[in-house]
Amino acid sequence: MSSAAQSSSSSLSFTLTSNSFVSGDKIPIKYSCFGPQTSPHLKWEVSSPDIKSFVLIMEDYDAIALVGHPYVHWDIFNIPAYTREIAEGATLRAMPAGSVEGVNDDGTRQYAGPCPPEGTGTHHYFFALYALNKSDLVFNTNSPMRRSAFETQYAASIIQKAEISGSYFYR
C-alpha cells in the first residue's frame, strides 16, 4: 500500500511515498519504539535535472509541549542525487552509499521510531524530503537538525520539498 503527499516550491513534480504506512494514517508498531523500531520504506519521484542531493528529516511536532521543540527522530544528509528510495530497515546497515545519518534527539545516529510518552495522546510524525541543487553542503551531524533550521540555513539550496506524515498513539 502506498500513499503520497506533495509540496513543491516549483511546478515540477516531487512526491514522497511509503510502502510501510499510509500518509496521514497510523504508523504500525513495527516502526515504533514499542516494536522492533524498523526504519520505514521511503520512495520518491522527481523530475528536475538540477537535483544534486537530498536531505530527509523526520520530526514530531507534538513533542513541542513536552521538550520545547520539535523532536527529531531521523535526519539523513548527503543522500546522492541518483537515489530514489530508502529500503525498509536500512538505518545503520543499508543506507544509500554516501549518505550520512545525523544525530537525532535520542542522541543516536539512526532512526528513532515513534515513542510518545504514556498519557500524551496522539503524536504526528512528519517525514520531509528536500531536493537540493548542491551536493557539497556541510552539515553538523553531531546535533539534531530541525526542519525550520534546515530550511532557513539552506534556503538557497532547496529546489523542492516533499512530505508525508503518520501518527502514533500510546495509551
Task: Explain briefly what this protein structure is.
It comes from Cellvibrio zantedeschiae. InterPro entries: PEBP, PEBP-like_sf, YbhB_YbcL/LppC-like. This protein is mostly beta strands and 171 residues long.
CATH architecture: Alpha-Beta Complex
The coarse silhouette is globular
Mean pLDDT: 90
Q: H/E element string? A: EEEEHEEEEHE
Head-to-tail CA distance between termini: 26 Å
> What's the CATH class, please?
Alpha Beta
Stretches where pLDDT is under 50 for at least 5 consecutive residues are 1-10
Strand order of the largest sheet: 7-5-4-8-9
**CATH homologous superfamily (4th level) name:** PEBP-like
Fraction of residues in β-strands: 25-35%
Largest pleated sheet: 5 strands, antiparallel
Tally the beta strands.
9
User: Tally the helices: what do you get?
Assistant: 2
Count of the domains: 1
- Radius of gyration over all CA atoms, rounded: 15 Å
Secondary structural class: mainly beta
Summarize the amount of helix as a percent range: under 10%
CATH topology title:
Phosphatidylethanolamine-binding Protein
Pfam family, one: PBP
Protein name: UPF0098 protein
